[in-house]
Amino acid sequence: MRKLGIFLAGAALAASGWAAHAQEAGATPAPAPPPPPEDWSLHFQSTLIGQGYPGFPSTVEGPNSLPSHGEIRESFSATGFLGRRMPWEGGELYFNPEINQGFGVGDTFGVAGFPNGEAQKVGFNTPKPNVARLFLRQTFGLGGDQETLEPDQNQLGETVDISRITVTAGKVSIPDFFDDNTYSHDPRTQFMNWALMDAGAYDYAADQKGYTDGFVAELNQKDWALRGGYFLVPKVQNDRDLQTQIAKYGGYNVELETRYQLFSEPGKFRVLGFANRVFAGSYRDTLADPDLGTDIAATRSDRTKYGFVLNVEQAVTDDVGLFSRYSWNDGKEEVMSYTDIDESFSLGTSVKGTSWGRPDDVVGLAGVVNFLSNAERDFLAAGGLSIVIGDGQLNYAPEGIMETYYSWQVVKPLSLSADYQFIDNPAYNRDRGPVHVFSLRAHLAF
Predict the structure, then answer these.
(1) 268 falls within a domain
(2) Any idea what DSSP says for residue 110?
């Protein structure tokens, strides 16, 4: 036994010496274990946007027109992102209290591709509190390879199966799940225009502030993901109250996301379809009855509004990315929640500042062209008013927008941005514009 013990001790010493020699010789060390999952999460953001434009040419002005004399307005938001892991496996609860204050230029009227992505949430002289999100997330791992999800807003840091099913239910914002894009999706840090931060013709279900109640289910795989959801729609156009007759009304969304490599650089392509069962008026039915004038509310009945979005993003290098979206909806019914765009095409680029010694800075440049359906065009030409536009008469032309911004990372939690937008034919009217919109943005996040 003594000889056996001496032999085993010698073998252990030899093995440890071989391991040390192998490591010195360049052998790959064992991978570090994943970090322990977070039980609590606390993040915060605050965004202040000052935005204005000088006077611009105009021969017509109506109740929903952007004032031609020029304006300067500001908007402010502050949001807390609280997360808590549930006592059962895979469960997480998130709560987002939010405060909003300020106004969009023109009281958020007069441009379909509106220049401030925060404007739909404001409209108050003093800060107004609001529950932005309150939802439960449940993840079911399906086994196989794993990936680490870094701590972020509404994301507990954890290691999960790449192959997984995730179900989310509660008060949410639909763009948190659908129509995502790495380079253009957050007006607090990226492009601010409504037709660039999201697909312009994507009339997703939401209340007046852009939130709704519903659920999303997602199946994630290494190279693709499939997600679908049901959400409450507003009772009538742009209403604060949501329709709770879930068997009769609702917004349905399905999106397929594919991930690929092009010249060794990552890219994503998303195809999104949506259909909203709503209580809405019809442009054609309104115009067909001379006694109604342009009172579209008199034609409200149960209708289905539908459309689709094609969304692509492509990295060119580690610092340069391209993106594009094409979106369309049927354009027959009232716009319910988003904006007066029935067809839209956008193209843009985002560049990090590594080449000039500022790797955390970002410069963006993009253009978008928006269109109206024939039905909505005729309704506005007859003097009708819609959700954000209506000049009383219409000399139609597509609405063209160019936006560029520079985001300067002052210190890690604080960035300052300068933004310029050129808007041709605002609200699709040749008799107005062009408009030059200038913005300064301060964004704090930790």
Answers:
(1) yes
(2) S
Q: What is the DSSP string of 313-380?
A: EEESSSSEEEEEEEEEE---B---SS-S-SEEEEEEEEEEEGGGTEEEEEEEEEEEEEE--HHHHHHH
The total domain count for the chain is 1
Cα(111)–Cα(423) distance, integer angstroms: 8
Cα radius of gyration rounded to whole Å, the chain: 26
- In tens, the pLDDT along 378-430 reads 999 999 999 999 999 999 999 999 999 999 999 989 999 999 999 999 999 99
- Token pair of 204, please? 């997703």
* Within a domain: 47: yes
Instruction: Give the integer Cα–Cα distance in Å for 431 and 396.
Output: 9
- Whole-angstrom Cα distance, residue 271 to residue 420? 30
Could you tell me the CATH number of the domain that includes residue 347? 2.40.160.180
pLDDT at 28 over 90: no
Hey, what are 299's tokens? 């034609």
Write down how long the chain is.
Answer: 446
Residue 343 counted as domain residue: yes
Range of the domain at 303: 36-445
Which residue(s) pair with 213 in the sheet? 171
CA distance 187 to 117: 5
| 205 within domain boundaries | yes
Burial class (CB in 10 A: 0-12, 13-18, 19+), 230: middle
